[in-house]
Amino acid sequence: MHRSLLAYVALCSLAGCVPPPGSPSLVQTPVTGDWTGTFDSSWGLLQVSATLANEKYSQSIYGSFVLEGQRATGTVGGALQTHDTDTAGLFHGSLTISYPLANGEMCRSTSGVTSGWATERWIEFVTSGFTIGNCPNPPANIRMTLRR
Question: Does domain 25-147 have CATH number 2.40.160?
């Protein structure tokens, strides 16, 4: 048993953590695909579109989003922990945002703690703002709500 556990840990770090035989299967909230919704923040209520994906054999999700009129783009990354198929998964991760500055350069900032919830048809990300990076006047008090 001890050797098989060591082998699993070694393979997990190389192969992306496929559960060993006999272990319970991973419950994953499927989010892969295109989403639309709203981005409510200190910038006002904007339309947003996103493309998200589940990472195979894990609870990681990632993706990108675009705010109305290409004003800004961003990314989503984190873990979506789902305990059973009948409840929403809990998200913990971060968002990034990028937009053009007056001098033509692009700024990029990352959110602080970002939390959220997700089902197969609805996702919500919540964060106080983009506190790390070089974007001046980034949006604050963000609530991004997406639907299929």
Answer: yes
